Amino acid sequence: MTPSAADLATFIDHTLLKPEATRADVERTIADAAELGTYSVCLSPSFLPVEVPAGLKVAVVCGFPSGKHHAEVKAAEAALSVAQGADEIDMVIDIGAAVEGRYEVVEAEIRAVRTAVPAPTVLKVIIESAALSDDAIVAVCEAAVAAGADFVKTSTGFHPAGGASVHAVRLMKQTVGDRAEVKASGGIRTRAAAEEMIAAGATRLGLSSSRDILADRAASGDY
Length: 223
Description:
TIM Barrel; 8-stranded parallel barrel; 223 residues; alpha/beta
């Protein structure tokens, strides 16, 4: 079945991660999210704390966008974000460690963040799937599950290799099964593409052009 716009909105983390974003941009993003009925807003940590309507979750990125931060720094950033009101943390792994096959490093940094922000904080792990081989995607997803992540997430949307793909979402879901959920993000510019990601196994979507996509208008750009 094709979801209604209202149903599709409940999958969305309405996202604002542009480096040049202002406080006024954040206020507009929160207002849009409330109007559209999205699940959450996803913001940069320096904007915290923010006021949001009841029922709207706040997600914040960590180690973004490169992932080239010490595990201790990622853990501290995540803990500060939660202390300032974040409900969910979207952390970027050390992608180079994954490319090299040093999955123990990836698992250790995810575990450090998980320890710093235990449940009920939701932890999503951004693996930058377009930059990884299928074998690496599987291994990193296994590491994320072993370290206690709630979600594996395709992309930052800032990597030149690209964003989410149906293939990556399907492979990630096949790997984690019922042990974790999958978030698709990066380059999703049409409603059809959003629905394809859900059909492939995504239960959350990272979108910055939520209004256009829900109205079935092609977005000019999406993180």
